[in-house]
Amino acid sequence: MQLFGIPNCSTVKKARDWLTNSGVAYEFYDFKKQGVSHELLAGWLSQVPWEKLVNRSGMTWRNLTDVEKSAVIDANSALNLMIDKSSVIKRPVLVSDGKIVCLGFTEAAYKELL
């Protein structure tokens, strides 16, 4: 399993704590340090709609200009934004064997999935 996110994000911290306390082995992938590739995001976008992968309630989205926000109209424009501003990606992203298992974190969802 891989957990993608940003270490100082409170939701990512909760997910990491839950996985550790539940004995689930995972590798943490830090968007800020390791970046995100076009290939990775394109793979995710083939699994989930861009509207779910872009976090439009987070600070990064809210700090975009209206022009930047209105330019995100499809998967390709969302991909470009996520490459440029990885903090706009919904997090954490839990992946197993290249497949998204869960976007975001709730204890109930993780219990059900794992």
Q: How would you describe this structure to a colleague?
A:
There is one protein chain. The chain has 114 residues and is an alpha+beta fold. It has a single domain (2-113), classed as 3-Layer(aba) Sandwich (Glutaredoxin). It contains eight helices and four strands; from the N terminus they run E-H-E-H-H-H-H-H-H-E-E-H. It has helices at 10-21, 31-34, 38-45, 50-53, 59-62, 66-70, 75-84, 107-113, and strands at 2-5, 27-30, 93-96, 99-103. Strands 2-1-3-4 form a four-stranded mixed beta sheet. A hairpin with a 2-residue loop joins strand 3 (93-96) and strand 4. The chain is globular and about 45 Å long. The protein starts with a strand and ends with a helix. The mean pLDDT is 95.
Rg, rounded, reads 14 Å
Q: Give unreliable regions as ranges.
A: none
Q: What is the ordering of alpha helices and beta strands?
A: EHEHHHHHHEEH
The count of DSSP E runs of length 2 or more, i.e. the number of strands, is 4
Number of domains: 1
Helix proportion: 40-55%
- Read across the widest sheet, the strand sequence of neighbours is 2-1-3-4
Strand-pairing-aware structural class: alpha+beta
* CATH architectural name: 3-Layer(aba) Sandwich
Mean pLDDT: 95
Class in CATH?
Answer: Alpha Beta
Largest sheet: 4 strands, mixed
**Overall body shape:** globular
Architecture blueprint of SSEs:
Blueprint: E1 2-5, H1 10-21, E2 27-30, H2 31-34, H3 38-45, H4 50-53, H5 59-62, H6 66-70, H7 75-84, E3 93-96, E4 99-103, H8 107-113
Parallel strand pairs: 1-2
Antiparallel strand pairs: 1-3, 3-4
Helix pairs in contact: 3-7
